[in-house]
Amino acid sequence: xxxxxxxxxxxxxxxxxxxxxxxxxxxxxxxxxxxxxxxxxxxxxxxxxxxxxxxxxxxxxxxxxxxxxxxxxxxxxxxxxxxxxxxxxxxxxxxxxxxxxxxxxxxxxxxxxxxxxxxxxxxxxxxxxxxxxxxxxxxxxxxxxxxxxxxxxxxxxxxxxxxxxxxxxxxxxxxxxxxxxxxxxxxxxxxxxxxxxxxxxxxxxxxxxxxxxxxxxxxxxxxxxxxxxxxxxxxxxxxxxxxxxxxxxxxxxxxxxxxxxxxxxxxxxxxxxxxxxxxxxxxxxxxxxxxxxxxxxxxxxxxxxxx
Length: 307
Ligand code: GLU
Description:
This protein has helices at about 1-25, 40, 50-65, 80-85, 100-125, 135-140, 140-160, 180-190, 225-235, 245-260, 275-280, 295-305; strands at about 30-35, 70-75, 130-135, 160-165, 195-200, 205, 220, 220, 260-265, 285. By secondary structure, it is of the alpha/beta class. The chain has one domain (about 30-75, about 110-305): Acetylglutamate kinase-like (Carbamate kinase). The strands form 2 sheets. It has an 8-stranded mixed β-sheet with strand order 3-4-2-1-5-9-10-8, sandwiched between helices. The chain has a two-stranded antiparallel sheet with strand order 6-7. About 40% of the residues are buried. Bound molecules: glutamic acid.
């Protein structure tokens, strides 16, 4: 009995030591991609932008720049903001022949509005923001990928903060990535980031959906994305606003960790978690990057199935 207890204690100590090591190394990350979803940027009651949250987000990112880090923001919200601007509640239930065109038009309106808001707040903190809109082709096509990579590199040299979204105004299912969880991991891999933070409406990964199963346990660290874990992700659903559920977050983790990038899922209800994470605190679920010898990003993106 005593031996079993000792063994259990030993393994708990080892787990804690490993976790502390992984958290400690977050402090040294140099190039960080932060993703925020539509539901985290809106007031749930009205669907209007939550300026207080946006302000805190931008301040945190500017402060990361001031710490000498390269920073990329992947932000959703184009469609949600556009819908709001032209008073559309639910695109899928519109009496329209081409709801995709309506969605794309909303994205065109909303992306400009969203960027205007970001530009204003970034300027208040003396930072230069830049917009990059991508589709699947940006990665799959060699010339496009090369160009995108060069643009990011140049923006880092200039000290600017790239703000990325999918190019929803032209992306139809053939060329769409489909959700910004996946997009942010692709961006992280493309720019050679060493940390990806997904700000979401949940605390991190659980053994089951905590909204329906009170027994669900929180997972602090994931070192291996097992098939069992990936299957578990497929069974969950996302919020009604964004596109990503746990499945897309696990696909993001697959891309990030295979590219030797640590990934953290954290709750966006307090965006100030960003600097606490960078200080090495144990917040959210951490997926540890692995030294995989070969990961073919364009091939992976080409084979991704969104429809
Ligand atoms: N690209 C979409 C938008 O900006 C959102 C995609 C997502 O929520 O993952 O509206």
